[in-house]
Design goal:
heterotrimer; A alpha/beta; B mainly alpha; C mainly alpha; A: alpha/beta; Rossmann fold; 4 domains; 36% helix; B: mainly alpha; Arp2/3 complex 21 kDa subunit ARPC3; 9 helices; globular
């Protein structure tokens, strides 16, 4: 039986000129597992929102055509009714959890259907078991890590036992261990219900999907069995989809196995292993520090290190290890009454003992995860000039021009930064930070929730800036990004510096700190313990 | 002894007769609902609307109770009749939410939730339910009247959309939407200004002239009522206009 | 003579500035936006306030309010301090007492100062039968431009305090509720009054957002400071620049919050929100013996208030808007 059937569907958001999704015909058989992928803004989330009834019932816009769930039209049913058939897990764990306690959150759906108390308690138990979060019982959602919240959210969706499960980028905002747990669940669920998963991490999903659907510019441009489509890896790559390097290499070499070790062996024999990455070191410290933070609540951080000029340093580790605290202590974001902070900084001739924001901000830039909070000006141009204006600094014009050009912001100069796309906003925020004249830039999770193309762009930009003498300190979970662009990794664990070294050095032993080496690294070095 | 801080005085000299107040509330409320329904902007909120209203009310609470009062300290008392930052913050935030939701009832529900939050965080339910009824059916209702009159196109937002179908092709809109989508600068300015003006009425006239004596036996002085009403009008109108343009900006940013 | 005149001018301005800057300093520097977040958010704990039914706590703040309203100002003061002292029983009680105390003091100074210099003798003669002003300070004549009465009297200060302790007592008890209950507990207890689910949900979103708003505003303000706002001026002006930053932070903060609104709504709707007219609750909040004790205590407070009125310590001061 067809679980989902779409006929002549078109949808246009208010304010946009052309339809965001246009699907003449599409169907999903009951029990199928399907990967829906495409670059950011391609329309894949719009497609699943047409399936779970968010469109046309919640999102404003113009829609024509119809979607059928087990033969029933979506437009004829209310969203709460649809929600008994289709369960939806969203991208951002914190935004979708409404209640305070884990059990309350799982009970939310059964309560909405006015089920008797005993039945709700049963459903809570079943869901907790299905997702394996027995250890989170009785906890408060606000005290959980992103990965844990995401599993609570998944349990909350499963509490209605939906026949169709939609997962809309479920792992984009969570750490590698959380990601592994979600994928583990999907592996076990395969075949038990119809699953649609929207994902950028194609590589991780491939083992348990039957079909891959690629959406581009609002249309389904590729739709086929997983095994067939993988032969079109290069075509997928051109559509902005992140394809693991070993699959591309396997394609290139004309072999059918996608096992990294096998591909690596063949490549080695044919002398086709990827180039060794160039890491920069030995340029002298641009910043050294000895950070001590003691929160009243008990968390402690002690980290002494230095950063080299013109390099990119990645700070990695589990959620709650102290990575963001480290950045905040360096810039002076932590209030005195929250924690005892000592973070003396040496920058060549300059010594800064007092963690004063205004002074430190002159030398160090900081881009928080929610960078939107920084955009206070009405035009991109004004945003870029903000620091030089308030600091009354002259002679910044050439730098600002150069940055506008580098971040391709010229054509948006007069536009409202808040109306730009997420990627563009990130560039405005980054450009405006550097336009203050800083030489060291710290970024908190800039790769979170970003697709392959955006991450590649970010990587290119920071590499270009690095060449011009800027230094970056970047907190991220994305091991592939780090392998491709970073010169050095700091691994933080439980408030301590656990490892420090080049990506090649760190990835050898990083798994015990929750950092899974990327396939590119494994392809190049395999399990050889000694770096070549 | 007063019940829950409500004195229930009805005979203070100069007080607005209670019959007028009651009639106003009934007539205005019924008009907004009937007119709104007949123009496709009935009080049927979807969940996003509720979230917008909840977040907006939370923001207003933070602004009015924790931030605004201290901004107001910078206003010399002589100018306090003209400028009230706490109140301007309320205009701004409520109009942003109204611009996003644009359904009759948005204003009233926003003020209702704001009052409940204010009670939970600040007032401890004193003087209730009078305050909630008063603010909901004045500040809230004025916005809803404007939403009803514009058929759900407050500040002209969304009026251009009526003239296009799902593929973006032009279709024939009605006279109102054609008009609003043509005058994109005038519509927010006029509507924001009118709302700003209307918002000068409740606290200055209705509260001082009726609710203050009703609740606490406050003294009614029409000279000072007329002065403070007149003095607050320019500031309210200017802020109303600014708020309307910010509301248009926010609705564009959020694609509503 | 000349010296006296200058001294008088100087002291007048110092008093004036204290009334304005005192609360302001407490709010921005001593409490800070993070501090507000702390006294408006729930943290789990097990002492008696955490076990009381939220409804009983709402009744408690109403009781405190009524008692403070109908009695003389110093009874309001005692109530305020008594309520603040109970903060010691909360999680991180010392810190909460410190923050709550500062907030109460800033409210008291702020509110009293908002009324005292402007209270006319007409108002005060209604408030104090047989009104004989005790003059504490005479302002320079040009202070009348700001609406000040020519003289500051003891009665005017008492009048200001009467109003401010009423407010301070209510705020201190209202914050107790939000610090010791999750929004869902408060709303689960309200559902007994048949309040529609959509309103309960909207309130819950609002309550949950308030601490977040403080957090985001704080972050946005800090970023502006980091980018150099106010750095070309003396540190003395820092609070002024924090305010400028606060105003600039409104639009980005509200947009940041509202961008998440769709996700919250989708998450609720795709889990059957408003599917049926009636909703069940798995976790009923009972009224326990502790609540009855608390209600008894409230009865006692009201009784004391009524007795005070008969003893001549009732409120005679009208609230003039």
């Amino acid at each position: 039986m067809k679980a989902i059937e779409i006929k002549d569907l078109k949808f246009r958001y208010l304010g946009s000129k052309k339809p965001s999704i246009s699907v003449p015909y599409f169907y999903v058989e009951e029990g199928e597992s399907i990967l829906i992928t495409g670059k950011s803004g391609s329309g894949k989330s719009t497609l699943v929102q047409c399936i779970n009834g968010i469109i046309p019932h919640i999102v404003n816009g113009k829609r024509s055509g119809e979607v059928y769930l087990f033969g029933e039209p979506v437009s004829g049913q209310r969203v709460p009714e649809i929600s008994r058939i289709v369960g939806t897990l969203l991208q951002d764990p914190e935004r979708q959890v409404i209640n305070y306690k884990v059990e309350e959150e799982i009970a939310f759906a059964p309560e909405n259907f006015n089920l008797p108390r005993e039945e709700i308690l049963e459903k809570i138990e079943e869901s907790i078991r299905a997702v394996g979060i027995e250890n989170l019982r009785g906890k408060e959602t606000s005290h959980l890590s992103g990965g844990e919240i995401q599993r609570v959210a998944l349990a909350a969706v499963l509490s209605m036992d939906p026949r169709i499960l939609i997962l809309d980028e479920p792992t984009s905002n969570i750490d590698p261990e959380g990601t592994r747990d979600i994928f583990q669940f999907l592996r076990e669920e395969k075949g038990k219900r119809t699953i649609l998963i929207v994902e950028h991490k194609v590589e991780r999903v491939l083992p348990f999907v039957d079909r891959i659907v690629v959406v581009d510019e609002g249309e389904i441009v590729l739709d086929g069995r997983t095994d067939d489509l993988i032969n079109e890896a290069h075509a997928l790559m051109e559509l902005g989809i992140e394809i693991p390097r070993h699959i591309l290499l396997a394609n290139q070499m004309g072999i059918t196995s996608y096992d990294i070790d096998e591909v690596r062996e063949t490549a080695k024999q044919r002398n086709m292993l990827p180039e060794k990455k160039v890491r920069i070191h030995g340029r002298g410290a641009v910043l050294s520090t000895d950070v001590k933070v003691e929160y009243r609540e008990g968390f402690r951080l002690r980290l002494s290190t230095s950063f080299e000029e013109g390099t990119i340093t990645a700070v990695m580790g589990r959620n709650g290890a102290g990575k963001s605290t480290f950045l905040k202590a360096l810039i002076g974001f932590i209030d005195k009454d929250q924690a005892l902070v000592e973070s003396p900084i040496n920058m060549g001739e300059l010594f800064l003992a007092n963690p004063d924001l205004q002074t430190r901000g002159k030398y160090i830039g900081y881009l928080p995860q929610s960078f939107d909070l920084m955009l206070i000006n009405k035009t991109v141009e004004r945003e870029m000039h903000y620091s030089s204006r308030v600091r009354k600094a002259n002679g910044m014009e050439p730098l600002i021009k150069e940055l506008m050009n580098l971040f391709t912001l010229d054509k948006f100069a007069r536009e409202d930064p808040l109306t730009l796309s997420q990627g563009q906003r990130r560039r405005v925020a980054m450009g405006a930070t550097i336009a203050g004249g800083v030489k060291v830039i710290m970024m908190d999770e800039p790769t979170s929730g970003q697709d392959y193309m955006h991450k590649e762009n970010l990587g290119r930009e920071i590499t270009e800036l690095k060449k011009r003498g800027y230094s970056f300190i970047i907190v991220t979970h994305d091991a592939r990004f780090v392998y491709r662009f970073a010169d050095k990794i700091l691994v933080v664990d439980k408030g301590r510096l656990a490892m420090e070294g080049t990506p090649e050095e760190v990835f050898q032993n990083s798994e015990k700190f929750g950092i899974v080496p990327p396939s590119e690294y494994l392809l190049r070095y395999g399990n050889e313990l000694l770096v070549e | 002894m007063a019940f829950n801080g409500i004195g229930g005085f009805l005979n203070s000299p100069g007080m607005i007769p209670w019959e007028i107040v009651v009639i106003y509330f009934i007539v205005a409320g019924v008009f907004a609902i009937i007119y709104g329904r007949s123009h496709g902007a009935g009080p049927k909120f979807n969940t996003v609307d509720l979230v917008y209203i909840g977040v907006g009310a939370a923001f207003t609470t933070v602004w009015e109770f924790f931030v605004g009062p201290f901004l107001d300290k910078f206003v010399p008392a002589g100018a306090a009749a003209y400028i009230g930052f706490g109140f301007f913050g309320r205009i701004l935030i409520v109009l942003i939410v109204a611009g996003l939701v644009r359904k009759v009832g948005t204003g009233m529900l926003s003020l209702f939730i704001f009052n409940l939050l204010g009670d939970i965080f600040h007032y401890g339910f004193s003087g209730e339910p009078i305050y909630t009824i008063y603010e909901t059916l004045t500040y809230g209702l004025f916005i809803d009247l404007m939403i009803a009159i514009t058929h759900g196109h407050l500040f002209g937002i969304g009026s251009g959309e009526e003239n296009e179908d799902a593929t973006g092709k032009a279709v024939k809109g009605n006279r109102l939407t054609n008009f609003l989508s043509k005058y994109t600068m005038v519509a927010p300015a006029v509507m924001g200004g009118v709302i700003g003006f209307l918002w000068a009425i409740p606290d200055n006239i209705l509260y001082t002239g009726f609710f203050s004596p009703f609740l606490y036996g406050g003294i009614v002085n029409w000279q000072s009522i007329i002065f403070s009403f007149g003095a607050s009008i320019p500031g309210n109108i200017v802020f109303g206009i600014i708020a309307a343009f910010i509301a248009v900006r926010v609705s564009k940013v959020l694609g509503q | 003579m000349e010296m006296n005149y200058l001294l008088n001018e100087l002291i007048s301005w110092l008093i004036f500035l204290f009334g304005i800057a005192g609360p302001f300093y407490l709010i921005l520097r001593a409490i800070g936006i993070r501090g507000f977040k702390e006294i408006t958010s729930y943290e789990p704990h097990t002492t008696f306030f955490y076990r009381m039914n939220p409804l009983v706590k709402i009744v408690f703040s109403m009781t405190v309010m009524i008692a403070a309203t109908i009695t003389i100002w110093w009874i309001g003061a005692i109530l305020t301090f008594a309520v603040l002292l109970t903060y010691l029983s909360l999680r991180n009680g010392g810190r909460k007492l410190y923050l709550g105390g500062l907030f109460a003091i800033s409210t008291i100074i702020g509110t009293a100062w908002g009324y005292a210099p402007f209270a006319t003798s007409a108002t005060l003669s209604i408030a104090f039968p047989g009104y004989h002003p005790t003059i504490l300070w005479t302002w320079p004549s040009y202070f009348s431009v700001m609406g000040y009465e020519p003289q500051l009297t003891l009665q005017a200060l008492l009048y200001g305090l009467q109003i401010s302790f009423r407010t301070a007592a209510i705020i201190s008890s209202a914050l107790l509720l939000v610090m010791t209950n999750t929004p869902s507990q408060i709303l689960r207890s309200l559902h007994k009054f048949n309040i529609p689910d959509s309103i309960i949900f909207t309130l819950m979103v609002g309550m949950k957002s308030i601490p977040d708003i403080f957090g985001y505003l704080d972050e946005s303000i800090k970023i502006q400071m980091m980018r150099g706002l106010g750095s070309s001026h003396s540190r003395l002006f820092k609070p002024v620049y924090m305010l400028i930053a606060g105003v600039s932070a409104i639009v980005p903060t509200i947009i940041h919050l509202l961008r998440g609104a769709k996700d919250i709504a989708i998450s609720a709707d795709t889990r059957g929100f408003r599917a049926t007219k009636k909703r069940s609750y798995v976790d009923e909040i009972p009224i326990t013996r502790l609540d009855y004790y608390a209600l008894g205590m409230m009865g006692f407070i009201i009784a004391v208030a009524v007795i005070s009125i008969f003893l001549g310590f009732g409120r005679t001061i009208p609230y003039v808007a």
